[in-house]
Hints:
Elements: H1 2-25, E1 27-30, E2 33-41, E3 49-58, E4 64-71, E5 76-85, E6 88-93, E7 98-100, E8 105-108, E9 113-118, E10 129-136, E11 140-149
Parallel strand pairs: 2-11
Antiparallel strand pairs: 1-2, 2-3, 3-8, 3-9, 4-5, 4-7, 4-10, 5-6, 5-9, 10-11
Amino acid sequence: MLSHFRSYVLPTTLVLTSLSSVAQAHEYKAGSLTITRPWVRATPGGAQVGGGYLTITNTGSMPDRLLGGALSGAARGEVHVTSNEGGISRMRPVEGGIEIKPGETVRLAPGGYHLMFLGLKHSLINGERVAGTLQFEKGGSVPVEFEVQAVGAKAPADHMNKH
Length: 163
């Protein structure tokens, strides 16, 4: 009976280790900041702008600010916000970036705060990963990898449930 039990322990351990590695691949640290699941939407051919999204948690005792970012193949990255005025959605740059207060989690998502990558030199293709950086006032420059999701994605796909 014990040898039968052992045959199940190893595969389960391997699966848990693999899932843990996937989760860690989407999390980055910068001092007291934790950045999770950076992603961008795929872009149609010829598009010169793309949106970037992620979640930032500040576990420290001092605030920090997300000032901007960069994406491989883009001329620049700015912090933007989408607002709805009179039934019309408008995007505008956020002067001074986004403050992340101690103990706070800030989510950049479609329809709200996001990174706007301008001057794209090539399309962002669903399923690819693109190197980038995030720029923080205190945390400095943090290298990250953005996962490219479908054109109309509202959130990153949960790859841990895919087989």
